């Protein structure tokens, strides 16, 4: 499969997660304060909560329900109660298009 348009770069607000779904795969897309775009799995591995409803702090996305923060770069939880990582997807930017292949995750 190849990368698909997830959203427009202009649709992203800095440090505000946007939930997208590509081929049934829910993701949280984040434009961080350094201007980098990240895409991670949208479901918290601790409590099946949508991470896109959480809070961006630095290079982490924190689950609003129980406070686990996941690295936007690796998907690894930075604190308990979550201990399983979420997938991190490769993001390409083409003009205003944010492109993501939901079948390709980054190796950590």
TrEMBL record:
One of its GO terms (molecular function) is dioxygenase activity. Gene3D superfamilies: Rieske [2Fe-2S] iron-sulphur domain. Keywords: 2Fe-2S, Dioxygenase, Iron, Iron-sulfur, Metal-binding, Oxidoreductase. Signal peptide: none annotated. SUPFAM superfamilies: ISP domain. It comes from the Bacteria. Residues 4-100 form the Rieske domain. Pfam families: Rieske. The keyword Lipid metabolism does not apply. CDD domains: Rieske_RO_ferredoxin. This is 3-phenylpropionate/trans-cinnamate dioxygenase ferredoxin subunit. It comes from Microbacterium murale.
């Amino acid at each position: 499969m190849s990368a698909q348009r997830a959203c427009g770069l202009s649709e992203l607000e800095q440090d505000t997660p946007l939930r997208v779904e590509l081929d049934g795969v829910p993701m949280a897309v984040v434009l961080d304060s350094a201007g980098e775009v990240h895409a991670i799995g949208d479901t918290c591995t601790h409590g099946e909560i949508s991470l896109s409803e959480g809070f961006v702090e630095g290079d982490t996305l924190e689950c609003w329900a129980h406070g686990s923060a996941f690295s936007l770069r690796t998907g690894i939880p930075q604190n308990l109660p979550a201990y399983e990582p979420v997938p991190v997807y490769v993001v390409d930017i083409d003009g205003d298009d944010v492109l993501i292949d939901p079948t390709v995750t980054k190796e950590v």
